[in-house]
Amino acid sequence: ETGVTQSPTHLIKTRGQQVTLRCSSQSGHNTVSWYQQALGQGPQFIFQYYREEENGRGNFPPRFSGLQFPNYSSELNVNALELDDSALYLCASTTQRESTNEQFFGPGTRLTVL
Amino acid sequence: SQQGEEDPQALSIQEGENATMNCSYKTSINNLQWYRQNSGRGLVHLILIRSNEREKHSGRLRVTLDTSKKSSSLLITASRAADTASYFCATDWMNTGFQKLVFGTGTRLLVSP
Fold it and tell me: What is the per-residue pLDDT across B20-36, written as a single tens digit (0 to 9) for each?
């Protein structure tokens, strides 16, 4: 167990809907990153938050957005869901914005878009 | 995409045998990390090797890094059924103010009793 928790575990939505995924960082970690992992693929970086601000983003459209709260918990919001958004969504926390230390991953939320 | 490649994509061995997985990447790195994933769940960090290191050990794990060839290998010795999982290498990509991990496509390891 890494101390990073995510909710919900599973989620089913229909195309066009909106979804919010939640992540609670490991104690003492002020940086959180979100990754999307399609079936059979490696995780892909969505964005990173440090002290409540987005400070880095991967190749994902603006309908993927996030929030980080003062207690360093985080949300990932996806609007106008598409079938290709079906994936495992992972959050990871670490201690520093530019850390080269390991990232601690949560168990993930599996999103299915019908 | 800067995604790396793992080789082989799948590996099936017997308990007690050694398992070797290889990873290639495309850009200069600060470090390379190996993660394990069981049944499509969260990733577990195994080992980190920095760009100025050539070999690192942790228990039954041995990692090598060849920055001239942009490649790394993970060796699991005396494998166990519990080692059955997918293994990913991830390169640490640093840019102005943020860090992201760029993952490879993974090796699915099956260890049979």
Answer: 999 999 888 888 999 99
